Amino acid sequence: MDMKIAVIKGDGIGPEIVSEAMKVLDKVCAVCSHSIEYREVLMGGASIDAFGVPLTEETIEACRNSDAVLMGSIGGDTNTSPWYKLEPSKRPEAGLLGIRKALNLFANLRPAYLYKELSQACPLKKEIADKGFDMLIMRELTGGLYFGERKTVTENGIRKAIDTLTYTEEEIRRIAIKAFEIARKRRGSVISVDKANVLDSSRLWRDVVNSVSKDYPDVKLSHMLVDNCAMQLVKDPSQFDVVLTENMFGDILSDEASMITGSIGMLSSASLNDTKFGLYEPSHGSAPDIAGQNIANPIATILSAAMMLRYTFDLDKEADLIEKAVSDVLSEGFRTSDIYTEGTRKLSCSQMGEEIARRIG
Ligand code: IPM
Ligand code: MG
User: Fold this and answer.
1) DSSP of 151-214, one letter per residue?
2) First CA to last CA across the chain, in angstroms?
3) Ligand 1 center–CA 144 separation, angstroms
4) What integer pLDDT is reported at residue 120 of this predicted model?
5) CA–CA distance, 122 with 114 (Å, rounded to integer)
6) Phi, psi at 11, each rounded to 5°
7) How much distance in Å is there from the Cα of 183 to the middle of ligand 2?
8) What is the rounded distance in angstroms from the CA atom of residue 307 to the CA atom of residue 311?
């Protein structure tokens, strides 16, 4: 297969982790006789430095003309980076939100899985960690508070900020369908998370999800309030299969879910539209505090590349090869510093990429 991939390395640790994912992809392609054409484009802080804006039409077009986008992470230290002196619509994050919207990437899949080998790095009590967990957070990505009207006004000398949370039933229906479809390929359960005891948008959410579920009688649906979900994630994460939720709740819950896997450096993600096109990025940020030191964990990005092979290119066997190589490296005791524990062997970012690539084929 010939694959055309747009690459956004991004800021902070982005260039380091994406280089390792490319190393692993190149190895898979060599072993399985595929070819990849990469086209590197800028977004976020790197784009601000080069063009004065976090996202250009050229970057959007290059992504549109590719089969998929592989991304690192964007943004810098919000306290010290000059990017955060710019108005909000010119900052790095606006580039990420802009590309999600421009490419209609409404479905964000964030799997969180506890590797047996990492149960020591899991911050939960042993009896909870021992049960293991394997969930997928299906986060709505182009609606809600992130894209509602917002403004700051001054009334009678007092500043007032307004953010609006809007969902249409169509926006809810299409993400719910994605959740039920994927639940069918997993353990057949969807827990939809909302705040229906307070918010109108959540009451509509619940109503639409209930009506979509009628087309999926084989999938078990239940509803959970978001505050309870935050609690259940640390009390008994094994109860979750597919977690369906809106944009802001999904942002928060997916960080929590990633932390209980042992490190935020392990969580991959896919952002999909209605076609096979997708943007694949780790769920974590750009970690400017450790950028350029070759100590970041590239696994989330490498697993995101595996998701790309699976969802955009239907290359399940190749995706399995990457996932197996990651779990082999972990079971052989190799770790980056974020998941290092006594008795394991600490690797740099590039060494981790090499070890994973070496185990393919
Ligand atoms: C994420 C990130 C982004 C988000 C930021 C960088 C805008 O936290 O992908 O989870 O909030 O969606
Ligand atoms: Mg986030």
Assistant:
1) EEEEETTEEEEEE-----HHHHHHHHHHHHHHHHHTTSEEEEEE-TTT-HHHHHHHHHHHHHHT
2) 17
3) 13
4) 84
5) 8
6) -115, 175
7) 23
8) 6
Residue 193's closest CA among 165, 163, 221? 221
- For 57-101, the pLDDT digits (tens) are 999 999 999 999 999 999 999 999 999 999 999 999 999 999 999
What is the best residue among 13, 96, 142, 264 to mutate for testing ligand 1's pocket, by most ligand atoms within 8 Å of CB? 96
Mean predicted confidence (pLDDT) in 134-139: 98
- Domain extent, residue 324, equals 1-107+264-361
Q: Domain check: are 133 and 247 in the same one?
A: yes
Ligand 2 geometric centre to CA of 14 (Å): 15
Find all residues with CB under 8 Å of 287, minimum gap 6, and list them.
12, 13, 73, 296
Q: What is the pLDDT of residue 119?
A: 87
Nearest CA to ligand 1 atom 10: 251
Token pair 């944009």 is found at 247
Q: Is 196 in contact with 223 (CB distance < 8 Å)?
A: yes
CATH code: domain of residue 136: 3.40.718.10
Cα–Cα dist 161/179, whole Å: 33
Q: Is the pTM of this model over 0.90?
A: yes
Q: Which two tokens stand for residue 54?
A: 């976090």
* Residues that are catalytic: 146, 195, 227, 251, 255
Rounded CA separation 173/207 (Å): 10
Domain co-membership, 80 together with 163: no
Residue 158: beta bridge partners? 155
